[in-house]
Amino acid sequence: MKTRFILIQTSHAGNVGAVARAMRTMGFDDLVLVEPRWPDVLTHQEAIDRASGATDVLSKARVVASLDEALDGVQHLCATAMVARDFGPPTRSPRAHCEWLAQRQADSAGASDPVAATPFVMPEGVAFLFGSERFGMRNEDVYRCNVALQIPTAADFGSLNIAAAVQVIAYEWRLFLDAQSALVRPALGAGAEAGAPASGVATAALADAQAVAGLLEHWRQGLEAIGYLDPAAPKKLMARLQQMFNRAQLSPEEIHLLRGVAKSMLYTAAQASDLPQRD
């Protein structure tokens, strides 16, 4: 399973280095920075100093201009939030979310009627998103995620340094991945290839977050065209569709099908606009 840590609009170069160190101690090295304050942050001396030897993470890291660019190959997005949102994805602690993933996989593998129950597909790519040090994550970025992770802290002092938050989540995720590996090994037969999935685990391909974002934008255009979505007062419609698409664990083929629906909405609206108007 590919694991990525994404820092959005990070302000301090030292924090980037400290995050690299936290990741490296847990065996992770995929770091992406979205619109950091310092364009040269990955070679900034303070970042190098705070990395404390984890310069391989910094040298491999990428700087991108938008969150969409950071999500290639990622199907499961985990926001981080100190304060739970009234709307959006479910809020869980990192450990509770790992337990939820494991339980969903176990329930799917043990389903007596696999036709009646939609199998849960463990994602191949997971990303943990962290907002800026001053403002945290924007609501629109949280809404596109599958879950919002909230680290249990003291009620009167809940603010964590971003590197400390990364360390906690990376630790919990490492425990989860190690437990998953332990489950897979006994299920491998004598002639099975190393890394093969355990028996009963769904392995169908999931569409990545970029594809889901493209689908959502296509539907926004279609719904506006047919008059169902008022762009002046969109309310929470698109955010609700986002969560519905996330829960559905769409495959690339299903993305293609649903984009066909959006294309038909646009076509129908265009045809209607060409018809003569009645008095």
Give a description of the structure.
The protein is α/β, with parallel strands linked by helices and 279 residues long. The protein has 10 helices and 7 strands. A 7-stranded parallel β-sheet has the order 3-2-1-6-4-7-5. Helix 1 packs parallel to helix 2 and helix 1 runs parallel beside helix 7. The protein is globular, with a radius of gyration of 21 Å.
Q: What key phrases describe this protein's structure?
A:
alpha/beta; 11% strand; single chain; 46% helix; globular; 279 residues
The total strand number stands at 7
The end-to-end distance, rounded to whole angstroms, is 61 Å
Beta-strand proportion = 5-15%
Low-confidence stretches: 190-202
Short description:
The chain is of the alpha/beta class and 279 residues long.
Task: Give the secondary structure arrangement, pairings included.
Elements: E1 2-8, H1 13-25, E2 31-34, H2 45-51, H3 55-60, E3 62-64, H4 67-70, E4 76-80, E5 91-92, H5 94-109, E6 125-130, H6 139-143, E7 147-149, H7 162-187, H8 209-225, H9 237-248, H10 252-274
Parallel strand pairs: 1-2, 1-6, 2-3, 4-6, 4-7, 5-7
